[in-house]
Recover the amino acids of this structure.
């Protein structure tokens, strides 16, 4: 059974922003981690290309929607390459493959008698691509997310019988691991408790969408189409594309990681659509928080959008990954502050982890002919061996529970404690007396070994820094050997060469 993880399928109305980078980096870290555990992983990402929002953006730019989508999709692809995102499937909802999956799925839902023609009246936010429930002063009300006026709609649409699934949805959302984190579950429980209403799944005023088979002038509502992208993605690169093939290739996903604003679609509408079509439900829908910048919502009008390209060229991948993963607890809102960013990178990566590596490898090189000490008896119950074992266990538990911030802190704590161990043992004093050499060898080996474990634990989170630590310790991580086995104490070869020290992380300056 593969481990299947998805990012949202990003709208191509604009290029990627910090929010899209955030979700994708977190998914990437989880995917890398699961692969290290020896799991087959299918990491899905992609773009959501249809709907009025995209149609209008293309019009404003004076290009046809497909050309516009191709342009932005290329930017997304380049971006994920630059950030070294290890996705397995990239789905485009404007692809033929996807169109055929949507049609097949629609046929199944129709067969369950869950589709009927009705009249949709209401206030619509094009930015959200969503009807808003009876807002006060509707004609002047602005959507709090997009700061745009709502538009009145009164048209014939196809409807999906969501109300039929009230009981089932109530049961599903009450399951402890279906909606994460817990705080988000209550929002959805309250929403569902008000009573589910059928929702419209077609549009007559949107030409840029998948045509509804057999009904002229109707295209599918962008969300009905987009959610199915997760299914279509599974057929990519398969010889034959069909709904059945997709489902057999890995459905259901273990986790849909999304932002809190689109939780309702994933935790209510989507499960109902899947039940209607007779398919299994995703195991977890995880709604993460929103990122702000220096305490303010990011937006084009505020002129404070953080361009991921600029971030990347200024700082590189790993520092940004560390900040986003370690400083923000997945599920909570997070703030990107330049000063905080500089402090965290300097304290955690440069002063704590970088310095630990530097001082220990220097001591070892100085006292033991540029090598790791030899003739050291490996004892797994020594102070650091025990500490690292405890750290590995905690880290694994945290990672499995998608608490990546805590897993990162576990690594950092091991580095802090290893530094303290060194300060406490003071090998630079012990070495002055020849009779202490066996003890000094043991201390230095322990510290080098603990540092190696720190490097290995960083592998899914900060792949580049992890490789640099390995290289500085003369350690070669073996892909063919289980990562967990290499996390055992005593793997570092005694008497192996230590290369010339080079700084593994540059200290940052305040802007
Ligand atoms: N196309 C839909 C998703 C369809 S999934 C089948 C969509 N796209 S989006 O591009 O508007 O948003 C993509 C993701 O970015 C969402 O999960 C949204 O929550 C997230 N974010 C948008 N702004 C954000 C922040 N400022 N911070 C963190 N994430 C944010 O919705």
């Amino acid at each position: 059974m593969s481990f299947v993880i998805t990012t949202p399928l990003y709208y191509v109305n604009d290029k990627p922003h910090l929010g899209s980078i955030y979700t994708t980096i977190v998914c990437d870290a989880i995917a890398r981690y699961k692969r290290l555990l020896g799991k087959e992983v299918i990491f899905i990402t992609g773009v959501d290309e249809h709907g009025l929002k995209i149609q209008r953006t293309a019009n404003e730019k004076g290009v046809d929607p497909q050309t516009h989508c191709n342009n932005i999709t290329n930017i997304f692809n380049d971006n994920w390459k630059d950030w070294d995102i290890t996705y397995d499937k990239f789905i485009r909802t404007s692809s033929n493959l996807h169109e055929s999956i949507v049609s097949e799925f629609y046929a199944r839902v129709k067969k369950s008698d869950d589709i009927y023609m009705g009249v949709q009246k209401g206030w619509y936010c094009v930015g959200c691509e969503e009807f808003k429930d009876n807002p006060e002063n509707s004609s002047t009300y602005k959507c709090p997310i997009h700061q745009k006026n709502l538009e009145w709609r009164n048209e014939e649409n196809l409807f999906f019988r969501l109300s039929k699934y009230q009981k089932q949805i109530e049961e599903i959302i009450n399951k402890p691991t279906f909606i994460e984190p817990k705080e988000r579950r209550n929002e959805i429980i309250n929403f569902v408790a008000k009573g589910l209403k059928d929702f419209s799944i077609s549009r007559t005023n949107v030409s840029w969408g998948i045509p509804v088979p057999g009904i002229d002038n109707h295209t599918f509502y962008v969300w009905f189409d987009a959610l199915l992208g997760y299914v279509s993605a599974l057929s990519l690169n398969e010889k034959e594309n069909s709904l059945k093939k997709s489902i057999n290739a890995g459905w259901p996903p273990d986790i849909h990681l999304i932002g809190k604003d689109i939780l309702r679609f994933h935790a209510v509408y989507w499960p109902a659509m899947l039940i209607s079509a007779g398919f299994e439900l995703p195991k977890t829908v995880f709604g993460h928080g929103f990122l702000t910048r220096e305490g303010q919502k990011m937006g084009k009008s505020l002129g404070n959008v953080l361009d991921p390209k600029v971030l990347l060229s200024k700082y590189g991948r790993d520092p940004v990954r560390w900040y986003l993963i370690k400083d923000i607890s997945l599920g909570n809102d997070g703030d990107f502050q330049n000063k905080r960013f500089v402090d965290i990178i300097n304290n955690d990566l440069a002063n704590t982890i970088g310095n630990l590596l530097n001082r220990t490898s220097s001591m070892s090189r100085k006292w033991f002919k540029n090598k790791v000490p030899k003739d050291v008896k490996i004892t797994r119950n020594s102070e650091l061996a025990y500490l690292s074992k405890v750290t590995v266990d905690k880290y694994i538990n945290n990672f499995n529970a998608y608490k990546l911030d805590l897993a990162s802190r576990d690594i950092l704590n091991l580095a802090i404690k290893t530094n303290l161990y060194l300060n406490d043992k003071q090998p630079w004093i012990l070495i002055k007396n020849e009779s202490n050499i066996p003890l000094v060898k043991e201390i230095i080996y322990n510290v080098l070994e603990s540092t190696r474990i720190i490097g290995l634990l960083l592998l899914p989170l900060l792949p580049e820094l992890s490789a640099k630590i390995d290289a500085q310790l003369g350690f070669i991580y073996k892909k063919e050997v289980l990562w967990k086995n290499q996390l055992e104490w005593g793997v570092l070869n005694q008497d192996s060469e230590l290369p010339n020290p080079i700084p593994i992380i540059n200290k940052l300056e305040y802007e």
About this structure: Residues 8-11, 19-20, 22-23, 48, 226-227, 229, 258-259, 261-262, 290-291, 298 surround 5'-O-[(L-methionyl)-sulphamoyl]adenosine (CB under 6 Å).
